[in-house]
Design a protein that fits this description.
Length: about 500
Protein backbone atom coordinates (compact mmCIF):
# COMPACT_ATOMS: atom_id res chain seq x y z
CA UNK A 1 0.00 0.00 0.00
CA UNK A 2 1.24 3.43 -0.83
CA UNK A 3 0.49 5.97 1.84
CA UNK A 4 0.17 9.61 1.14
CA UNK A 5 0.14 12.35 3.65
CA UNK A 6 -1.17 14.89 1.24
CA UNK A 7 -4.65 14.49 2.63
CA UNK A 8 -3.37 14.99 6.14
CA UNK A 9 -1.50 18.15 5.24
CA UNK A 10 -4.61 19.44 3.52
CA UNK A 11 -6.56 18.86 6.68
CA UNK A 12 -3.98 20.75 8.70
CA UNK A 13 -4.47 23.70 6.42
CA UNK A 14 -8.15 23.74 7.14
CA UNK A 15 -7.76 23.25 10.85
CA UNK A 16 -5.13 25.91 11.20
CA UNK A 17 -7.66 28.30 9.80
CA UNK A 18 -10.48 27.49 12.17
CA UNK A 19 -8.94 26.78 15.54
CA UNK A 20 -6.98 29.96 15.97
CA UNK A 21 -8.61 31.08 19.15
CA UNK A 22 -8.70 27.75 20.90
CA UNK A 23 -6.01 28.03 23.55
CA UNK A 24 -5.19 31.63 23.91
CA UNK A 25 -7.21 32.36 27.02
CA UNK A 26 -5.68 29.60 29.08
CA UNK A 27 -4.01 31.47 31.93
CA UNK A 28 -7.01 33.22 33.47
CA UNK A 29 -9.68 30.69 32.79
CA UNK A 30 -8.81 28.13 35.39
CA UNK A 31 -7.91 29.99 38.49
CA UNK A 32 -8.93 27.13 40.69
CA UNK A 33 -7.97 26.69 44.29
CA UNK A 34 -5.31 24.27 43.23
CA UNK A 35 -3.80 26.82 40.89
CA UNK A 36 -3.74 29.46 43.57
CA UNK A 37 -1.91 27.06 45.83
CA UNK A 38 0.47 26.29 43.01
CA UNK A 39 1.11 29.98 42.51
CA UNK A 40 1.81 30.41 46.19
CA UNK A 41 4.19 27.50 46.10
CA UNK A 42 5.88 28.92 43.04
CA UNK A 43 6.44 32.20 44.77
CA UNK A 44 7.99 30.48 47.73
CA UNK A 45 10.01 28.26 45.52
CA UNK A 46 12.41 30.82 44.11
CA UNK A 47 15.88 29.77 43.16
CA UNK A 48 17.26 30.13 46.63
CA UNK A 49 14.77 27.70 48.08
CA UNK A 50 14.96 25.27 45.23
CA UNK A 51 18.63 24.82 45.79
CA UNK A 52 19.12 21.55 47.55
CA UNK A 53 15.40 20.87 47.40
CA UNK A 54 14.99 17.17 47.99
CA UNK A 55 11.46 16.05 47.64
CA UNK A 56 9.58 13.36 45.87
CA UNK A 57 8.47 14.92 42.60
CA UNK A 58 4.79 14.21 42.50
CA UNK A 59 2.67 15.91 39.95
CA UNK A 60 1.86 18.95 42.04
CA UNK A 61 5.31 20.23 42.80
CA UNK A 62 6.85 20.24 39.37
CA UNK A 63 8.11 23.79 38.83
CA UNK A 64 6.55 25.38 35.75
CA UNK A 65 8.83 26.33 32.87
CA UNK A 66 9.50 29.96 32.11
CA UNK A 67 8.24 30.99 28.71
CA UNK A 68 10.81 31.98 26.12
CA UNK A 69 11.21 35.70 25.60
CA UNK A 70 12.21 34.92 22.03
CA UNK A 71 15.35 37.02 22.06
CA UNK A 72 18.01 34.50 21.00
CA UNK A 73 18.36 32.80 17.67
CA UNK A 74 17.84 29.08 18.17
CA UNK A 75 21.18 27.29 17.96
CA UNK A 76 21.32 24.51 15.39
CA UNK A 77 23.92 21.89 16.30
CA UNK A 78 26.54 21.70 13.53
CA UNK A 79 26.75 18.56 11.44
CA UNK A 80 29.68 16.37 12.40
CA UNK A 81 32.21 16.45 9.57
CA UNK A 82 33.78 13.31 8.20
CA UNK A 83 37.53 13.05 8.74
CA UNK A 84 39.57 12.55 5.62
CA UNK A 85 42.54 10.26 5.49
CA UNK A 86 42.46 8.98 9.06
CA UNK A 87 41.75 5.49 10.31
CA UNK A 88 38.38 6.64 11.59
CA UNK A 89 35.50 8.58 10.05
CA UNK A 90 34.38 10.76 12.91
CA UNK A 91 35.93 12.22 16.01
CA UNK A 92 33.78 12.86 19.09
CA UNK A 93 35.38 14.46 22.12
CA UNK A 94 33.71 14.90 25.50
CA UNK A 95 35.09 18.09 26.96
CA UNK A 96 34.60 20.86 29.48
CA UNK A 97 33.55 24.31 28.42
CA UNK A 98 31.66 27.42 29.35
CA UNK A 99 28.37 28.78 28.03
CA UNK A 100 26.90 32.24 28.31
CA UNK A 101 23.24 31.68 29.16
CA UNK A 102 22.77 34.86 31.18
CA UNK A 103 24.05 38.39 30.75
CA UNK A 104 27.11 39.05 32.82
CA UNK A 105 27.90 35.48 33.74
CA UNK A 106 29.32 32.36 32.26
CA UNK A 107 28.20 28.85 33.20
CA UNK A 108 30.53 25.88 33.30
CA UNK A 109 29.18 23.25 30.95
CA UNK A 110 30.11 20.02 29.19
CA UNK A 111 29.89 19.38 25.48
CA UNK A 112 31.00 17.16 22.62
CA UNK A 113 33.47 18.92 20.33
CA UNK A 114 32.39 22.19 21.90
CA UNK A 115 31.05 23.89 24.99
CA UNK A 116 27.54 22.49 25.15
CA UNK A 117 25.65 19.56 23.60
CA UNK A 118 27.21 18.01 20.52
CA UNK A 119 27.24 18.01 16.73
CA UNK A 120 24.66 15.97 14.83
CA UNK A 121 26.03 12.71 13.54
CA UNK A 122 24.33 11.58 10.33
CA UNK A 123 24.67 8.00 9.20
CA UNK A 124 23.17 6.58 6.06
CA UNK A 125 21.00 3.51 6.27
CA UNK A 126 23.28 0.51 5.85
CA UNK A 127 26.48 2.50 6.32
CA UNK A 128 29.29 1.44 8.66
CA UNK A 129 31.50 4.09 10.21
CA UNK A 130 34.32 4.22 12.69
CA UNK A 131 34.01 6.83 15.38
CA UNK A 132 36.91 7.81 17.56
CA UNK A 133 35.55 8.72 20.99
CA UNK A 134 37.81 10.66 23.29
CA UNK A 135 37.39 11.68 26.91
CA UNK A 136 38.87 15.04 27.82
CA UNK A 137 36.79 15.44 30.97
CA UNK A 138 38.27 15.07 34.41
CA UNK A 139 36.08 12.06 35.12
CA UNK A 140 35.33 8.78 33.38
CA UNK A 141 32.55 8.73 30.81
CA UNK A 142 31.06 6.49 28.12
CA UNK A 143 29.58 7.18 24.69
CA UNK A 144 26.17 5.57 24.30
CA UNK A 145 24.28 5.55 20.99
CA UNK A 146 20.70 5.60 22.18
CA UNK A 147 18.42 3.66 19.84
CA UNK A 148 21.16 2.31 17.59
CA UNK A 149 21.09 -1.45 17.17
CA UNK A 150 24.81 -2.14 17.50
CA UNK A 151 26.60 -5.06 19.18
CA UNK A 152 26.94 -4.76 22.95
CA UNK A 153 30.66 -4.04 22.59
CA UNK A 154 29.91 -0.77 20.71
CA UNK A 155 26.91 0.30 22.76
CA UNK A 156 28.75 2.43 25.32
CA UNK A 157 26.97 1.12 28.39
CA UNK A 158 28.30 1.61 31.92
CA UNK A 159 30.94 -1.11 31.60
CA UNK A 160 32.53 0.70 28.68
CA UNK A 161 34.21 3.40 30.77
CA UNK A 162 36.73 5.63 29.09
CA UNK A 163 39.12 7.22 31.52
CA UNK A 164 40.18 10.88 31.30
CA UNK A 165 42.64 11.36 28.46
CA UNK A 166 41.80 8.02 26.88
CA UNK A 167 40.13 7.26 23.56
CA UNK A 168 38.76 4.32 21.63
CA UNK A 169 37.41 3.61 18.18
CA UNK A 170 33.91 2.19 17.91
CA UNK A 171 32.30 0.75 14.81
CA UNK A 172 28.75 1.83 14.21
CA UNK A 173 26.67 0.07 11.62
CA UNK A 174 23.42 1.79 10.80
CA UNK A 175 21.56 -1.39 10.01
CA UNK A 176 18.03 -0.14 10.65
CA UNK A 177 15.46 2.19 9.10
CA UNK A 178 15.77 5.94 8.93
CA UNK A 179 15.30 7.46 12.39
CA UNK A 180 16.16 10.21 14.83
CA UNK A 181 18.36 8.76 17.57
CA UNK A 182 20.75 10.44 19.96
CA UNK A 183 23.93 9.93 21.91
CA UNK A 184 24.84 10.65 25.52
CA UNK A 185 27.10 9.44 28.35
CA UNK A 186 26.26 6.40 30.48
CA UNK A 187 28.76 5.97 33.35
CA UNK A 188 27.01 4.33 36.26
CA UNK A 189 25.92 6.83 38.93
CA UNK A 190 27.25 9.72 36.83
CA UNK A 191 24.91 9.76 33.84
CA UNK A 192 22.43 12.27 35.22
CA UNK A 193 25.12 14.79 36.15
CA UNK A 194 26.99 14.54 32.85
CA UNK A 195 23.83 14.94 30.79
CA UNK A 196 22.69 17.78 33.06
CA UNK A 197 25.93 19.61 32.38
CA UNK A 198 25.40 19.38 28.64
CA UNK A 199 26.47 16.06 27.14
CA UNK A 200 23.97 15.01 24.47
CA UNK A 201 23.82 15.07 20.69
CA UNK A 202 21.60 13.97 17.83
CA UNK A 203 22.26 10.87 15.76
CA UNK A 204 20.30 10.52 12.54
CA UNK A 205 19.92 7.56 10.28
CA UNK A 206 19.18 8.89 6.82
CA UNK A 207 17.45 6.97 4.10
CA UNK A 208 19.99 5.44 1.74
CA UNK A 209 17.97 6.54 -1.23
CA UNK A 210 15.27 9.04 -0.59
CA UNK A 211 11.90 7.37 -0.90
CA UNK A 212 9.86 10.11 0.69
CA UNK A 213 9.64 13.79 0.00
CA UNK A 214 9.76 14.77 3.61
CA UNK A 215 11.62 18.02 4.21
CA UNK A 216 15.26 17.08 4.70
CA UNK A 217 17.45 20.16 4.40
CA UNK A 218 19.25 20.22 7.71
CA UNK A 219 18.79 23.43 9.65
CA UNK A 220 16.47 24.91 7.00
CA UNK A 221 13.28 22.86 6.81
CA UNK A 222 14.49 19.91 8.90
CA UNK A 223 15.31 21.09 12.40
CA UNK A 224 16.51 19.18 15.44
CA UNK A 225 14.93 20.34 18.70
CA UNK A 226 16.49 19.14 21.93
CA UNK A 227 14.20 20.17 24.78
CA UNK A 228 15.74 20.26 28.25
CA UNK A 229 14.89 21.88 31.54
CA UNK A 230 17.61 23.13 33.80
CA UNK A 231 17.99 24.46 37.28
CA UNK A 232 20.70 27.04 37.89
CA UNK A 233 22.10 28.02 41.28
CA UNK A 234 22.37 31.63 42.37
CA UNK A 235 25.76 31.91 40.72
CA UNK A 236 24.08 30.73 37.52
CA UNK A 237 25.98 27.49 37.58
CA UNK A 238 24.78 23.94 36.98
CA UNK A 239 26.00 22.74 40.36
CA UNK A 240 24.56 19.27 40.11
CA UNK A 241 25.41 18.13 43.61
CA UNK A 242 23.54 21.06 45.13
CA UNK A 243 20.66 21.10 42.67
CA UNK A 244 19.96 17.44 42.08
CA UNK A 245 16.85 15.63 43.19
CA UNK A 246 17.13 11.88 43.57
CA UNK A 247 13.70 11.52 42.03
CA UNK A 248 14.75 13.34 38.91
CA UNK A 249 16.16 16.83 38.62
CA UNK A 250 13.52 19.16 37.24
CA UNK A 251 14.23 22.78 36.44
CA UNK A 252 12.25 25.89 35.66
CA UNK A 253 14.51 27.09 32.86
CA UNK A 254 13.74 25.79 29.41
CA UNK A 255 16.54 25.30 26.91
CA UNK A 256 16.08 24.30 23.30
CA UNK A 257 19.28 23.11 21.63
CA UNK A 258 20.99 24.73 24.61
CA UNK A 259 19.50 28.14 23.79
CA UNK A 260 17.78 30.10 26.52
CA UNK A 261 14.88 32.30 25.32
CA UNK A 262 15.11 30.95 21.77
CA UNK A 263 13.19 31.88 18.68
CA UNK A 264 13.29 30.37 15.22
CA UNK A 265 12.73 32.16 11.96
CA UNK A 266 10.80 29.90 9.64
CA UNK A 267 11.63 30.36 5.95
CA UNK A 268 9.92 27.34 4.44
CA UNK A 269 6.18 26.72 4.54
CA UNK A 270 6.43 23.05 5.45
CA UNK A 271 8.78 22.34 8.34
CA UNK A 272 9.97 19.07 9.83
CA UNK A 273 11.00 19.11 13.48
CA UNK A 274 12.82 16.24 15.13
CA UNK A 275 11.99 16.58 18.78
CA UNK A 276 13.99 14.95 21.54
CA UNK A 277 13.01 15.08 25.18
CA UNK A 278 16.55 15.45 26.47
CA UNK A 279 15.52 16.26 30.03
CA UNK A 280 16.72 14.31 33.04
CA UNK A 281 13.20 13.73 34.32
CA UNK A 282 10.55 16.09 33.00
CA UNK A 283 7.76 14.93 30.69
CA UNK A 284 6.74 17.38 28.02
CA UNK A 285 3.44 17.77 26.25
CA UNK A 286 3.95 19.91 23.18
CA UNK A 287 1.23 21.94 21.49
CA UNK A 288 1.00 24.88 19.14
CA UNK A 289 0.06 28.18 20.72
CA UNK A 290 -2.91 28.68 18.39
CA UNK A 291 -4.26 25.22 19.02
CA UNK A 292 -3.64 24.14 15.45
CA UNK A 293 -2.94 20.59 14.55
CA UNK A 294 0.25 19.21 13.09
CA UNK A 295 1.33 15.84 11.78
CA UNK A 296 3.43 13.33 13.65
CA UNK A 297 5.40 11.25 11.17
CA UNK A 298 7.89 9.33 13.31
CA UNK A 299 8.42 7.89 16.77
CA UNK A 300 11.74 6.93 18.41
CA UNK A 301 12.88 4.41 15.83
CA UNK A 302 11.49 5.68 12.56
CA UNK A 303 8.44 6.53 10.51
CA UNK A 304 5.07 5.64 11.95
CA UNK A 305 2.88 3.07 10.32
CA UNK A 306 1.01 6.08 8.99
CA UNK A 307 1.16 9.82 9.68
CA UNK A 308 -0.99 10.98 12.58
CA UNK A 309 -2.68 14.32 12.73
CA UNK A 310 -2.81 15.65 16.27
CA UNK A 311 -2.79 18.79 18.39
CA UNK A 312 -0.38 17.52 21.03
CA UNK A 313 2.34 15.02 21.69
CA UNK A 314 3.71 13.86 25.01
CA UNK A 315 7.31 12.75 25.29
CA UNK A 316 8.96 11.32 28.37
CA UNK A 317 12.74 11.57 28.83
CA UNK A 318 14.67 10.13 25.88
CA UNK A 319 11.62 9.73 23.62
CA UNK A 320 11.60 11.35 20.18
CA UNK A 321 8.93 12.38 17.71
CA UNK A 322 9.20 13.88 14.26
CA UNK A 323 6.48 16.30 13.29
CA UNK A 324 5.51 18.39 10.28
CA UNK A 325 4.07 21.84 10.73
CA UNK A 326 2.48 23.59 7.79
CA UNK A 327 3.03 27.32 8.23
CA UNK A 328 1.62 28.29 4.86
CA UNK A 329 -1.86 29.09 6.08
CA UNK A 330 -0.78 30.99 9.16
CA UNK A 331 -1.01 34.71 9.46
CA UNK A 332 2.55 36.04 9.87
CA UNK A 333 1.30 38.71 12.24
CA UNK A 334 -0.12 36.23 14.68
CA UNK A 335 2.43 34.96 17.18
CA UNK A 336 2.92 31.23 17.00
CA UNK A 337 5.04 29.00 19.17
CA UNK A 338 5.54 25.47 20.32
CA UNK A 339 4.25 25.50 23.88
CA UNK A 340 4.17 23.11 26.79
CA UNK A 341 0.94 21.85 28.35
CA UNK A 342 0.64 25.00 30.46
CA UNK A 343 0.72 27.15 27.34
CA UNK A 344 4.23 28.48 28.01
CA UNK A 345 5.94 29.30 24.72
CA UNK A 346 9.05 27.13 24.60
CA UNK A 347 9.92 27.95 21.00
CA UNK A 348 8.35 31.02 19.40
CA UNK A 349 8.48 31.30 15.62
CA UNK A 350 8.99 34.26 13.32
CA UNK A 351 7.56 33.72 9.89
CA UNK A 352 9.55 34.85 6.89
CA UNK A 353 7.94 33.02 4.02
CA UNK A 354 8.45 34.14 0.44
CA UNK A 355 6.61 31.21 -0.82
CA UNK A 356 3.48 29.96 0.85
CA UNK A 357 2.77 27.23 -1.60
CA UNK A 358 3.17 23.79 -0.14
CA UNK A 359 1.16 21.90 -2.70
CA UNK A 360 4.08 21.16 -4.96
CA UNK A 361 6.17 19.72 -2.20
CA UNK A 362 3.45 17.70 -0.59
CA UNK A 363 1.92 16.32 -3.72
CA UNK A 364 4.39 13.50 -3.97
CA UNK A 365 4.99 13.11 -0.26
CA UNK A 366 4.34 9.54 0.68
CA UNK A 367 6.08 6.50 1.97
CA UNK A 368 5.77 2.85 1.37
CA UNK A 369 4.66 0.57 4.10
CA UNK A 370 3.50 -2.81 2.97
CA UNK A 371 3.64 -4.50 6.32
CA UNK A 372 1.09 -4.69 9.06
CA UNK A 373 2.33 -3.15 12.28
CA UNK A 374 1.92 -6.37 14.23
CA UNK A 375 0.83 -9.70 12.83
CA UNK A 376 -1.87 -11.72 14.60
CA UNK A 377 0.82 -14.19 15.50
CA UNK A 378 2.98 -11.50 17.11
CA UNK A 379 0.00 -10.18 19.05
CA UNK A 380 -0.76 -13.60 20.45
CA UNK A 381 2.76 -14.48 21.60
CA UNK A 382 2.89 -15.16 25.32
CA UNK A 383 4.90 -13.14 27.79
CA UNK A 384 8.37 -14.53 28.45
CA UNK A 385 10.01 -11.65 30.33
CA UNK A 386 8.35 -9.90 33.22
CA UNK A 387 9.68 -6.61 34.47
CA UNK A 388 8.37 -4.83 37.55
CA UNK A 389 9.24 -1.19 38.08
CA UNK A 390 8.85 0.04 41.62
CA UNK A 391 9.69 2.81 44.01
CA UNK A 392 10.88 6.36 43.99
CA UNK A 393 13.88 8.50 44.88
CA UNK A 394 16.79 6.26 45.82
CA UNK A 395 14.54 3.29 46.59
CA UNK A 396 13.85 2.48 42.96
CA UNK A 397 14.16 -1.12 41.79
CA UNK A 398 13.49 -3.42 38.86
CA UNK A 399 12.11 -6.81 39.90
CA UNK A 400 13.03 -5.89 43.46
CA UNK A 401 16.71 -5.40 42.66
CA UNK A 402 19.14 -2.64 42.06
CA UNK A 403 21.70 -2.63 39.26
CA UNK A 404 24.67 -4.89 39.73
CA UNK A 405 27.25 -4.77 36.93
CA UNK A 406 28.28 -8.33 37.81
CA UNK A 407 24.79 -9.77 37.43
CA UNK A 408 23.02 -10.78 34.22
CA UNK A 409 19.30 -10.42 34.86
CA UNK A 410 17.87 -11.76 31.62
CA UNK A 411 19.02 -13.73 28.60
CA UNK A 412 17.54 -13.65 25.12
CA UNK A 413 18.55 -15.21 21.86
CA UNK A 414 19.73 -12.94 19.07
CA UNK A 415 17.11 -12.40 16.38
CA UNK A 416 14.33 -14.12 18.34
CA UNK A 417 11.32 -12.01 19.28
CA UNK A 418 10.04 -12.19 22.82
CA UNK A 419 7.26 -10.43 24.66
CA UNK A 420 8.34 -8.32 27.59
CA UNK A 421 5.65 -7.22 29.99
CA UNK A 422 6.56 -4.15 31.95
CA UNK A 423 4.48 -3.47 35.03
CA UNK A 424 4.75 -0.21 36.93
CA UNK A 425 3.77 -1.25 40.43
CA UNK A 426 2.14 1.55 42.42
CA UNK A 427 3.18 2.31 45.99
CA UNK A 428 1.19 3.78 48.91
CA UNK A 429 1.66 7.27 47.48
CA UNK A 430 0.35 6.15 44.11
CA UNK A 431 3.68 5.72 42.40
CA UNK A 432 5.15 7.65 39.54
CA UNK A 433 5.68 7.50 35.79
CA UNK A 434 8.75 5.68 34.61
CA UNK A 435 10.08 5.96 31.06
CA UNK A 436 11.39 2.47 30.32
CA UNK A 437 14.21 2.07 27.80
CA UNK A 438 16.02 -0.94 26.34
CA UNK A 439 19.41 -0.75 24.60
CA UNK A 440 20.24 -2.54 21.36
CA UNK A 441 16.69 -2.82 20.08
CA UNK A 442 13.81 -1.00 18.48
CA UNK A 443 10.71 -2.66 19.87
CA UNK A 444 7.01 -2.45 19.12
CA UNK A 445 4.33 -1.79 21.69
CA UNK A 446 1.83 -4.65 21.54
CA UNK A 447 -0.57 -3.31 24.15
CA UNK A 448 -1.12 -0.98 27.08
CA UNK A 449 -3.31 -2.65 29.69
CA UNK A 450 -4.56 -4.95 26.99
CA UNK A 451 -5.46 -2.15 24.60
CA UNK A 452 -3.88 -1.51 21.23
CA UNK A 453 -1.40 1.38 21.43
CA UNK A 454 -2.29 4.84 20.19
CA UNK A 455 -1.43 5.42 16.49
CA UNK A 456 1.35 7.78 17.67
CA UNK A 457 3.01 4.73 19.20
CA UNK A 458 2.52 2.45 16.20
CA UNK A 459 6.10 2.71 15.09
CA UNK A 460 9.46 1.52 16.32
CA UNK A 461 10.28 2.59 19.86
CA UNK A 462 13.16 2.28 22.27
CA UNK A 463 11.61 4.10 25.24
CA UNK A 464 8.09 3.95 26.55
CA UNK A 465 6.31 5.92 29.26
CA UNK A 466 4.62 3.64 31.77
CA UNK A 467 2.13 5.05 34.25
CA UNK A 468 1.59 3.73 37.76
CA UNK A 469 -0.47 0.56 37.66
CA UNK A 470 -0.01 0.15 33.94
CA UNK A 471 1.09 -3.03 32.16
CA UNK A 472 2.72 -2.60 28.79
CA UNK A 473 3.62 -5.45 26.46
CA UNK A 474 6.53 -5.03 24.11
CA UNK A 475 7.68 -7.14 21.19
CA UNK A 476 11.45 -7.13 21.63
CA UNK A 477 14.03 -8.42 19.15
CA UNK A 478 17.78 -7.90 19.40
CA UNK A 479 19.50 -8.04 16.01
CA UNK A 480 23.00 -8.13 17.54
CA UNK A 481 24.74 -9.91 20.41
CA UNK A 482 26.11 -8.58 23.64
CA UNK A 483 25.16 -7.28 27.03
CA UNK A 484 22.60 -4.49 27.02
CA UNK A 485 21.06 -2.29 29.68
CA UNK A 486 17.37 -1.77 30.25
CA UNK A 487 16.40 0.95 32.66
CA UNK A 488 14.23 3.85 33.69
CA UNK A 489 15.29 6.92 31.69
CA UNK A 490 14.66 9.30 34.55
CA UNK A 491 18.41 9.65 34.77
CA UNK A 492 18.49 9.88 38.56
CA UNK A 493 16.49 6.64 38.79
CA UNK A 494 18.96 5.00 36.43
CA UNK A 495 21.86 6.26 38.54
CA UNK A 496 20.05 5.01 41.65
CA UNK A 497 20.12 1.51 40.23
CA UNK A 498 16.81 1.23 38.38
CA UNK A 499 18.60 -0.75 35.70
CA UNK A 500 19.18 -4.34 34.69
CA UNK A 501 21.20 -6.24 32.10
CA UNK A 502 20.08 -8.57 29.35
CA UNK A 503 22.59 -10.81 27.67
CA UNK A 504 21.85 -11.49 24.04
CA UNK A 505 23.49 -14.68 22.78
CU1 LIG B 1 19.53 6.90 26.63
CU2 LIG B 1 20.70 3.67 28.67
O1 LIG B 1 20.15 5.29 27.55
CU1 LIG C 1 20.04 3.75 25.37
CU1 LIG D 1 11.88 5.91 37.11
Amino acid sequence: MRRTILAVVGLVLILVGCTNTATEQQPEEQNTEQEQMQQKEDMEMDHGNMEGMEAHMDHDNIPPLQASEGIQKLAIPPLLEKQKGSDFDYDVVAQEGATKFFDGSSTKTYGYNGNLLGPTLRLKEGETVKVKVRNELNEPTTFHWHGLEVPGTEDGGPSDLIQPGESKIVTLKADQPTATLWYHPHPHERTAEQVFKGLAGMLYIDESDVTTDLPNTYGVDDIPLIFQDRLFDKNQQLDYEALMNSDGTIGDISLVNGTLNPKLTVTEPLMRFRILNGANARNYTFRLSNGATFVQIASDGGLLQEPVETDEITLSPSERAEILIDFSALDSNEPIAITDEEGNALLPFDLDLDNRDVTEETESMSWEDNTTFLTEEEKSLSVTKEIELYGMMDMVTINGKKFDPGRIDLRQEQGVSEVWEIYNKPDEMGGMNHPFHIHGTQFKIISRDGEEPDPKEQGLKDSVLIEPGERVRLLVTFPEEGIYMYHCHILEHEDNGMMGQVEVY
